[in-house]
């Protein structure tokens, strides 16, 4: 059994959506200060690094993070590599493989550096979301900051996901992950009213004992 960490490291340099709250950590107590332990706090957007969106982020009647069922974020997962042009949406025709798991992560390579925000990343198409829903997919994600294009104010794919009641996983790092079937573990924090939650996303390769 191998555990593949697909989460970028959270530190001040990590890129967040332009205008959002960046990640910072303030150390209140430390051994260097003569204290008997280390104590610190963080300030950050909830949409930092590997994270899942809650439906209330993109729909006025959507559930908050603490109301979401955890089943979406744990279980069999398929990683699919796609060849998409910069700043385009992934289409059904781009799949190249059959859907074989109820959770799907797309490896696009279009957001290569988690510490540099490029706006021409790939996203999902609403048609692809509908296709995945018909195949029984309960969570979809990718290695970019959003399931929608950077300039999409209508949030077409977010709303397609809401109609299908699917989970979202954004900002994962898949450059070292081969396409195939894994077990995904990406549990969100139980944040009351939260519009998202950072996760420690991992893929398990092989049987879990």
Note down, in words, how this protein is organized.
This protein has helices at 126-134, 156-164, and strands spanning 2-5, 24-29, 39-43, 51-53, 74-81, 89-90, 103-107, 123-124, 139-142, 167-170, 180-185, 196-198, 202-205. By secondary structure, it is mainly beta. Strand 9 (139-142), helix 2 and strand 10 (167-170) form a beta-alpha-beta unit. Helix 1 runs parallel beside helix 2. The longest helix is centred in the middle third of the chain and has 9 residues, at 126-134.
Ordered list of secondary-structure elements with their pairings:
Elements lengths: L1 E4 L18 E6 L9 E5 L7 E3 L20 E8 L7 E2 L12 E5 L15 E2 L1 H9 L4 E4 L13 H9 L2 E4 L9 E6 L10 E3 L3 E4 L4
Parallel strand pairs: 5-7, 6-8, 7-9, 9-10
Antiparallel strand pairs: 1-13, 2-3, 4-12, 5-11, 11-13
Please outline what is shown here:
The chain has two helices and 13 strands; from the N terminus they run ββββββββαβαββββ. With 209 residues, it is mainly beta.
- The CATH topology comes to Glucose Oxidase, domain 1
The appropriate CATH architecture is 3-Layer(bba) Sandwich
- Sheet bearing the most strands, described? 7 strands, mixed
Beta fraction of the residues? Answer: 25-35%
What is the tally of beta strands? Answer: 13
Question: Which descriptor suits the 3D outline?
Answer: globular
**CATH superfamily membership:** Putative cyclase
Given this structure, which CATH class is correct?
Answer: Alpha Beta
Q: Give the strand order of the largest sheet, numbering strands 1, 2, ... along the chain.
A: 1-13-11-5-7-9-10
Mean pLDDT: 97
- Whole-number count of domains: 1
Secondary-structure content class: mainly beta
User: Could you give the order of the helices and strands?
Assistant: EEEEEEEEHEHEEEE
Uncertain segments: none
